Amino acid sequence: MTADGAPDPDEFWIFGYGQDHRGTPEEPGRVVTLIERSFWASLADAHDFAPEKVWGTAYRIKADKVAEVKEYLDIREINGYTIHYTPFHPADGSDSIRTLVYIGTPDNDQFTGPQDPQALAEHIYVSEGPSGLNRDYLLSLEKALDELSPESGDAHVTDLSNRVREIERKHREGELQVEGFEHPVSHEFKKATSVDEQEETEKA
Questions:
Q1: Any idea which residues carry the catalytic annotation?
Q2: 78 pLDDT more than 70
Q3: Inter-residue contact 173 to 191 (CB < 8 Å)
Q4: What's the rounded Cα separation, in Å, for the pair 2 and 158?
């Protein structure tokens, strides 16, 4: 901002609606993106409702940090994302802000489209990358959305989070095994049985 409160033309704002990636190039995790409503309406999605608003946070980048931040974001987001600009409407009703936003468009190789929710939850549960666990990304996203506003929660994110928590419970209580969990990406799920338990005893 300038001394009189007007926007500084040398600074910019960025709209954040997710967090960092949690996977590897060979076995990518899953992260959120934005798509046009007209495209969403053409999809065979397991969730038949999409809210009118997209909740997130606008971050002001001061003029002396613009070059540094843009370079960092272009490196981090350029694989699978394109740059767009959109108005951001503050929850307090103040004037809208022009913000930069990175979007994973449907024509990009990284765009997966709709998936079976349970299969997606299982993939998220076992995915991991340099930034951490993909399930931590999902659960943190759910928490952040729930805390923004009484109406900012996302039904799809909450459904996936509940499924991941149930997988975690079953895994913790021995009802579910993940083969080769020491290398958590791309492993199949199966129910634990007495035969499995016997095999584990014999291995020990």
A1: 77
A2: no
A3: no
A4: 41
